[in-house]
Automatic annotation (TrEMBL):
SUPFAM superfamilies membership: HD-domain/PDEase-like (SSF109604)
Protein name (database record): HD-GYP domain-containing protein
Lineage: Bacteria, Pseudomonadati, Thermodesulfobacteriota, Desulfovibrionia, Desulfovibrionales
SMART domains: HDc
Domain HD-GYP: from-to ranges: 17-219
Length: 288
């Protein structure tokens, strides 16, 4: 309704206990990340953003496919890179490819995060194993334990896909962010080595062929930002038309392509994906 709630009890009833727990955990973890004195503010903000987005994507997958987790997926997303706070800053923030020795140190973060969480509290085993195994691969060439396909727990299989997707679509000191459609193309090229069969396809089913955050050109030559996927039509998402043919800002218009006629019927289709970096566009301000 937009009105403030009268008390904690009513808030729990309205939001649900699980959502309240997520909010409390998010607030606590955000403070832990952003008030860390051993890292620069920029590094802490990047780690926090990646962890929070990973948690949100895990929650969406869990809800869409009814995986049965009761908040563990969100917690694991927030916790999964906690071990990076123990990785030397010169390695974590290196603007170039890591040496073999440096990469071996970076690989320790999942084991370190697991040990930290295990010593802090009595967390569910699913969360602990998710943190420990999120860099294990389907072909057994991941780390830290080089687990074979059947040895990897089901929970971390989901976390692996989400972690890689957000890492690819985020800016790092050593690389630019990939547009979502480019990231998905890369992930499909790696799917036989990295992911349990069928999970990447389910990821696309959930988030669409054009994931939220993608910039697309429509058949009327305007440009739109993808806001949300439509499960029954993954190729026709909800978009915000925000740019003209020449990629200058225009008055935004929300269009649900799943409910819109196709171009051949006088409506709209997506013609192509566009890389915002090539046109020096900052899409964050247009996402709200």
């Amino acid at each position: 309704t937009g009105r403030p709630l009268a008390g904690v009890e009513l808030a729990v009833v309205r939001l649900g206990l699980r959502e309240c727990c997520n909010l409390i955990l998010t607030a606590g973890m955000r403070g832990l990340f952003l008030r860390n004195q051993s890292r620069s503010k920029k590094v802490c903000e990047a780690l926090w953003q990646h962890s929070f987005l990973t948690a949100c994507l895990c929650r969406r997958l869990n809800a869409t496919f009814e995986l049965g987790y009761q908040g563990e997926e969100f917690s694991a997303g927030l916790f999964h890179d906690l071990g990076k706070f123990r990785i030397p800053l010169q390695i974590l923030n290196k603007p170039a490819r890591l040496s073999e020795r440096e990469f071996a140190v970076m690989q320790l973060h999942s084991q370190v995060g697991y040990e930290l969480l295990k010593s802090w509290s009595d967390l569910p085993e699913d969360i602990l194993l998710g943190v420990l195994h999120h860099h294990e691969r389907f072909d057994g060439k991941g780390y830290p334990k080089q687990l074979l396909a059947d040895e990897k727990d089901p929970f971390s299989r989901v976390l692996t896909i989400v972690d890689i997707y957000d890492a690819l679509t985020s800016t790092r000191p050593y690389k630019k962010a990939m547009p979502p459609h480019v990231a998905l193309k890369a992930m499909f090229a790696w799917r036989n080595e990295n992911f349990h069969p069928g999970l990447l396809e389910r990821f696309v089913e959930c988030f669409g062929v054009y994931p939220p955050g993608s910039l697309v050109r429509l058949t009327d030559q305007t440009h739109a930002l993808v806001l949300a996927a439509r499960e029954h039509r993954p190729d026709r998402p909800l978009v915000k038309v925000a740019f003209t043919k020449r990629l200058t800002p225009q008055l935004p218009q929300i269009v649900d392509l799943a409910s819109c006629p196709a171009a051949k019927e006088g409506g709209l289709d997506i013609e192509a994906c566009v890389d915002p970096l090539e046109h020096k566009l900052d899409l964050e301000k247009f996402a709200v």
